[in-house]
Amino acid sequence: MNNVSDHRVLLTRDIPMSDFPSLETIFIDMYVAKNGYKAATKALQEMKPGDIIEEVKKSGLRGRGGGGFPTGKKWEMVAGAAGEEKHVCCNAAEGEQETFKDRCLIRSNPHQLIEGIIIASYAVGAHVSYLYVNENYREEITLLEKALKEAQGKGYIGKKILGTDFSLDIHIQKCPDQYVAGEETAMIEVIEGRAAKPWQKPPYYPANRGIYGNPTLVNNTGTLSNIPHIVLKGGDWFSQVGSRQNPGTMLFTLTGDINRPGIYELPLGTTLSKLISNCGNGLKDGRRFKAAFLPGNSPLTESHLEIRLDFESLKEAGSGLGCAAVTVLGDGTCAVATTLKFSRFFMNESCGQCPPCQMGTANMAILLQKIEDGHGKIEDLAAIENICSLSKGQGYCQLLSGAVFVVEGAIRHFRKEFEAHIHEKRCPLQSSSGNTL
Ligand SMILES: Cc1cc2nc3c(=O)[nH]c(=O)nc-3n(C[C@H](O)[C@H](O)[C@H](O)COP(=O)(O)O)c2cc1C
């Protein structure tokens, strides 16, 4: 984990890696010593649920799970939905490529997240809430189990919390290690004991009909980890960092041909060039920047180096922030091979229930493989583009559209490189010995 920002919110109260506790260490005292659970105490003892929702709305916080939906608005919908019982579900499925920000947040501070869930549950009226965690995050699950026990021991979870009438149980639900299992309705299926297959939306959304038919607030780990800070310091304080429409910080997962890959907490709206040079310490071996691939979104190129990495700016540029995973390609790294890698991921992760998704992701990957292997024809490129235009918006969830955005964007930006693979029947970036230049 790399903390290079002066604006850290989420990682300010983390425990330095040097004295990272073993699984046996007690965390809660460290957390409480750094003002931990003060926000939950304030929320439950001094604030009405509506006041908390107003503060979250004022902060302008947007979901960190990929869509950037306004968090306060979602809380208001769940709080106002008809139903005796409600639930909060923290999404730590994190099955997306090249992403490990949620894992980092859980490792560095499980109590910050639990505190966020407690406040969210109180605000929307939930008494049974869930932590939905990627099953491969075994150590993190152990940390969370331990932290939940500690919180229960100190009276932050359980019956009549902190002497109030509010009671809450939080359960851990292991999430299958499949990308699609992170989609919010697939998550509900898993919690109810079925396979991870998304629903068609509309008519039902988790906010009005979620776990066991009850209104359910689904928020990402990063979203909920911001909540204690907003409650303690106020929405205005939170929105001082970032831009008006994109307040706060974001955890960027920086990978690829970079000197210092890692997780960086930076204000939303930080430029791509700053992320690469200040945080990533530039490209490996002095290579020139070629592209940044963002899972489920159109890649960025050299002309985007000064683009602000936030929801609005990237949307305007025909891309998207998603969960802020940035895979950097230097010159010499093949755009076709990278596109194929992303495309194969979507093919493998399609759950198979929607024929357009199953066939669209598979056909794109097969044709890209053909081009990468040097057997492609120019008509294959047109066929891929045709699949893209027919597939966009199809399927029950966004998986197919995400696959299309990556492939379509890569062809738009690197058409010459795709064509060169077809004409030269090999990767033009490889020397005759087969080594990448
Ligand atoms: C295929 C697919 C996979 C997803 N995976 C995740 C995930 O791993 N974690 C996550 O928080 N959201 C994921 N989402 C988005 C969730 O459906 C949901 O919008 C999000 O958890 C809401 O939280 P937020 O409002 O705090 O961003 C995924 C969506 C799709 C379509």
Q: Could you please describe the fold and organization of this structure?
A:
With 437 residues, the protein is of the alpha/beta class. It folds into two domains: 17-238, Rossmann fold; 249-424, Roll (Ubiquitin-like (UB roll)). The protein is built from 16 helices and nine strands. It has helices at residues 28-33, 38-46, 49-59, 71-80, 101-108, 110-124, 138-153, 184-191, 221-233, 235-238, 272-279, 311-316, 335-349, 355-372, 378-391, 399-424, and strands spanning 87-92, 128-134, 169-175, 216-220, 249-256, 262-267, 289-294, 297-301, 325-330. Helix 13 (335-349) runs antiparallel to helix 16 and helix 14 packs antiparallel against helix 15. The relative contact order is 0.12. Flavin mononucleotide binds at residues 63-67, 69, 91, 93-96, 179-180, 182-184, 218-220, 223, 397-399.
Helix content percent band: 40-55%
Hetero groups in this structure are: flavin mononucleotide
Distance between the termini: 31 Å
H/E element sequence? HHHHEHHEHEHEHHEEHEEHEHHHH
Q: Please count the helical segments.
A: 16
Report the mean per-residue pLDDT as an integer: 93
The Cα radius of gyration reads 22 Å
**What is the CATH top level name of the largest domain?**
Alpha Beta
**Based on helices, strands and strand pairing, what is the structural class?**
alpha/beta
Give the overall form.
globular
